[in-house]
């Protein structure tokens, strides 16, 4: 969690510094120019694809960590797309798009009994999130190379569960069990983005997405 927050703060610091510097330069331009004549990181033509990874899991599966279990969890992978509305909305631009997220977790307990034979008890979870996404990009926090923005996601989270064991113990109620459940997924988030080339940059977002409390990754202008 600390590494994730540190990464987000670093991206935010670069973004805020570039936003302030960029807007000071724009403010020095002729007052005869229109307000939106300056170059912006996000404007009415923007289409952005984000590839992200989160390491601070929002999953309750972590409760299996310890208690004799060998617990492991994958990073929370995400793919998001955002496209600006064709007209400016107030003092900034509204971007709409989609969010897809995935994470897996496994808790395994190993035991030996019945003449020294090896047996295991394993729980596996998979979490999938699909949601609509909207983010608002204020002009004041939007320069030619960087921006700070805020938004929301609304969608559905699907969790699957599978239990397996090779134990012949007659007291084991289930030798194999699988099921799944769906629940609403919604969250507010705060993000920052900084482009180190014309079309490639880094970004960070804080806000629960049902599989992670935060995300860092790469942004690509399409």
Output the strand order for the largest sheet: 1-3-4-5-6-7-8-9
Strand percentage lies at over 45%
Q: Compute the number of strand runs.
A: 9
Quickly give the CATH architecture. Answer: Beta Barrel
Globally, the shape reads: elongated
Report on the biggest sheet: 8 strands, antiparallel, barrel
Low-confidence stretches: 24-37
Query: What's the order of the H and E elements?
Result: HEEEEEEEEE
Compute the CA-based radius of gyration.
23 Å
Here the CATH topology equals Porin
Q: What structural category arises from helix and sheet content?
A: mainly beta
Distance between the termini: 31 Å
Instruction: Write down the domain tally.
Output: 1
Helix percent reads: 10-25%
CATH class call? Mainly Beta
Q: What is the residue-averaged pLDDT? A: 79
DSSP summary: helix tally: 1
Task: Please characterize this protein's 3D structure.
Helices cover 12% and strands 54% of the residues. It has one helix spanning 2-27, and strands at residues 47-54, 70-73, 76-84, 92-113, 117-138, 146-165, 176-195, 200-206, 214-221. It has one helix and nine strands. Residues 24-37 have low confidence and may be disordered. An eight-stranded antiparallel β-barrel has the order 1-3-4-5-6-7-8-9. It has a single domain (2-29, 38-221), classed as Porin (Beta Barrel). With 222 residues, the chain is mostly beta strands.
